Amino acid sequence: MTEFKHNIASSVKNAIAKLYPAAVISEEEIFGMLEYPPDDTMGDVAFPCFKLSRTLRAAPPKIAAALFAELEAMPPKGAGKVQLVGGYINFFASCEFFAESVLAPLCEKGADYGRTDEGAGKTVVLDYSSPNTAKPFHIGHLGTTVIGHSLKLLHEYRGYSCVGINHLGDWGTQFGKLITAYRKWGSREDIETGGIDKLVELYVKFHEEAEKDPALGDEARAEFTKLEHGDEENLALWRWFIDISLAEYQKTYAQLGITFDSYNGESFYTDKMPEQVELLREKNLMKIDDGASIVDLSEYNMPPCLILKRDGSTLYPTRDIAAAVYRDRTYHFDKCIYVTSAGQSLHFAQWFKVVELMGYDFASKLYHVPYGTVSIGGEKLATRTGNVILLRDLFATSVEKVRAIMEEKNPNMQNKDEAAEAVGVGAIVFYYLSSNRIRDINFVMEEALDFNGNTGPYAQYTYARTCSILSKLGEEAAGAKAPLCTSLDKTERDLMKTFSLFPEKVDEAIAGMEPSIVTRYILELCGAFNRFYQACPIATCEDAEKRALRISLTRGTRDILGKALELICIKHPEKI
Ligand code: ARG
After folding, report:
1. Where are the alpha helices (DSSP H) in 454-489?
2. Which architecture characterizes domain 391-440+448-567 according to CATH?
3. H/E run at residue 126
4. What pTM was computed for the model?
5. Cα(131) to centroid of ligand 1, in Å?
6. What share of the chain is helix, strand, coil (3-state, %, to 5)?
7. Atom of ligand 1 lying closest to residue 320 CA
């Protein structure tokens, strides 16, 4: 609809220039005033004339009548009908508009309908997923992982070159704890066979024991200090723990179809921090508070940002500052996006301010994208204890349930394993990405898996249906061009209008860093397609032109739906 809106804005501008030669108003301002009416009897796009009364210094009814007379005589390009209702001028897009400006480019570009190169030459760095190694990948990480990856894919679709970074939490006192626990209670064989679960067990045991015996804490700190000073044995253990953790994460990433361009975690910045600490000192930004080095941010209504502990060791913000400088020098980014839970909002606000005070220009290009908490059945998820819900287990349960449904519905299906995994995992991701990211979510498996609800399985089924319709039509489906039909069934028109909104939804999702806009669009598209499919037969349609139109509508749905699912990290098998 963007193109249609531009045509309207241009015509409205010309009409105003003719009627009110002294008026100063730009086409962009007019574009910004255009609205989508709440229902389609009021047109596809509406112009609220009262918004001009101040600029034009005239009464709204007078403006409306004069503008309407002009626009009715000279309608915007692509408009079939222009109507004046209660101060609004309503514009209806014509059949030609849909044929030429929506369906023709869609037939030509397929899944690239909606791709642009506006980001060409610009780089976006995205820091997401970033689990703390040797701790389990639990349901709280789902948000950063899928929101982050989706934002990456959305930016790529707009031509940006993107760098996905998994900023692993691979450094810190937890490694001292793990090393201590491993030496006391662990064994190599156990961990080689049990993987990350054994590491987590050790970590949990450490916390239980440390409650009884506080000396354990000192031991762990001493082991971490040894690690920091390059102790060979501790370094080898540390590397091994990380490899074990990464192997586990990779399984989850593979289920989601996610890869990263860099796994430079916190440890990577060890040798890059002194330069920044030095700069902070030179610029007189640091002060000593109770032995620790901090940057006072009271002027900005924030608690101080901690740079060095009393013993001189670095902290989470110190590493983030060094990492941002490194990324600026390495990638020359136009945006650097951090996706984490809202619980870290203050941390980001603090160190973003610190780099600004340090004089780094890139400070204005840093974006924190926060998201809400996830609970299951109303329970919040803990991290320090063993009682957490692992993403892996959640996926496995979902996949198992989907498999059982498939066995029942279609026992002879060929690609059952692959399809059950795509649908089971997709259901969870779709459910998660259905609401605005900042909202807290209470996860209900039954809702996520409802094949008839507004769910991932429903969207994937709709996709598979388009594939099956097209494959039954064979050659004909591949060759059909978009014809110009002079009359359209309402469901055909609605479907084309829904197509035309896809590029705008991608824009909105990027502007708001909000993948859920795409998720909700997918539901609109599925709804529009399913209504069309019920009302408009294809295989039995004998009118050649209509038949070609309906085939191209089905193909368009397949292409946009497949791409939209992909943009929110959901796989789409052709057969379910
Ligand atoms: N490892 C952190 C956590 O799990 C998230 C890291 C986010 N990225 C960053 N550059 N601070 O809470």
Report:
1. 456-473, 475-479
2. Orthogonal Bundle (1.10)
3. strand 123-127
4. 0.94
5. 7
6. 60, 10, 30
7. 10
